[in-house]
Design goal:
alpha+beta, seven-stranded mixed sheet, two-stranded antiparallel sheet, 9 strands
């Protein structure tokens, strides 16, 4: 019985170590970004909606369980963003200066290629830091 309990506790520790909750930052081109994780359907839906601002070196990382073409909208946003679409550890597309929703019909932004991560940062961040398609991202 003790052996089973020990193995179960070990499995929980290993699984929690692999969790996206352990990701605290992302690095692209030697630029470190402090990130908030959105890894549940509820957190991904909420995203950065209704937030007043995002610090200069902060972002939100949307974590998905699989790779597919993704589509985002700027629902209830108060500031423009750069949207970085990521396939594993590589930037596959960037939408720069995506504006807050306010027009009808709603503007949709798509990855065009399969992605399992999406990183939202302040508008202009990619330009200021030389971030482009093909760049590698390190999540830690």
């Amino acid at each position: 019985m003790k052996k089973i309990l020990f193995l179960a506790c070990g499995a929980i520790l290993i699984l929690s170590a692999c969790s996206s909750n352990n990701i605290k930052s992302a690095t692209i081109n030697n630029t470190e970004i402090k990130i908030e994780i959105a890894d549940t359907p509820e957190l991904r839906y909420q995203g950065l909606s209704n937030k007043e601002k995002l610090c200069a070196d902060c972002g939100m990382l949307f974590v998905f369980p699989n790779k597919e073409i993704r589509t985002f909208v700027m629902r209830d946003m108060n500031f423009p963003l750069d949207i970085i679409w990521i396939d594993d550890e590589k930037v596959v597309k960037i939408n720069k200066n995506t504006l807050p929703e306010g027009s009808d019909p709603v503007m949709r932004y798509s990855s065009d290629a399969p992605a399992n991560y999406v990183l939202e940062v302040n508008s202009g961040f990619c330009e200021e830091n030389g971030i482009g398609v093909g760049d590698k991202i390190n999540l830690k």
